[in-house]
Specification:
Blueprint: H1 3-17, H2 37-40, H3 43-80
Length: about 90
């Protein structure tokens, strides 16, 4: 795994750890007794709920990518601005 990908992965895990009400995706069999859509539930509400859950995870990933880019930018400006270098 590349260094950048590993950093983003770590940032996503850190962001997830700070979520108090983490939701997981549900499949159509997740209703009582394992019946599809909870034994007559509305498939539209099931799809809408899962869409919201996916959007929340996408937001966390975008946040991690943004944080990583900001860190890279800061590191780059420190090096360009005369920060310490080994040599």
């Amino acid at each position: 795994m590349s260094d950048r990908r590993q950093r983003i992965h770590s940032l996503v895990l850190a962001l997830l750890a700070h979520q108090s009400d983490l939701e997981l995706l549900e499949d159509e069999r997740s209703g009582p007794g394992g019946h599809p859509l909870g034994g007559g539930g509305d498939p539209g509400s099931w799809l809408e709920r899962n869409r919201r859950v996916v959007q929340r995870y996408q937001s966390l990933v975008r946040s991690a990518v943004t944080l990583d880019a900001l860190i890279e930018q800061e590191l780059g400006s420190d090096q360009l601005g005369g920060g310490s270098t080994s040599g």
